[in-house]
Amino acid sequence: MEKNYSREHINKIIGANIRFIRKSNKLSQEKFAELVDLSPQFISDLERGLQGISLSTMIKICNTMKCSPLVILANLIEFDNYNNEMDDFLKLSDKNQEVVKTIISALLNSK
Questions:
Q1: Predicted confidence pLDDT, tens digits, the chain (111 residues)
Q2: How far apart are CA 61 and CA 16, in angstroms?
């Protein structure tokens, strides 16, 4: 089956993935827009696939929501070896991230 690389198709898939990220974080479009410093109208258009996303906007969303760009590109990129351990790590509190870093550092220094 031939892949669909049309702008419209890509925008719809990315929009659905961004909606998933927003809803997974239990955010309204308005609050999500505020957090990523975009207009609520743009978020609405983006989620419906009416707007495309720039690389800088994708990076902003990923950094703000602490997720991999692979989440935004899910169902578009064929990549079987994705490991979401870093995504899981970034969801930890700052305190727990420091604990994990200390443990990793101790393991690396024990060689």
A1: 568 889 999 999 999 999 999 998 899 999 999 999 999 999 999 999 999 999 999 999 999 999 989 889 988 887 656 566 766 777 788 899 899 889 988 898 886
A2: 14
CA 22 from centroid of its chain's CA atoms: 9
What region, left, alpha or beta, does residue 26 occupy, with left being phi > 0 and alpha being psi -120 to 50 degrees?
left
Residue by residue, DSSP assigns the chain as: ------HHHHHHHHHHHHHHHHHHTT--HHHHHHHHT--HHHHHHHHTTSS---HHHHHHHHHHHT--HHHHTTTTS--TT--THHHHHHTS-HHHHHHHHHHHHHHHHT-
**Fold of the 1-79 domain:** 434 Repressor (Amino-terminal Domain) (1.10.260)
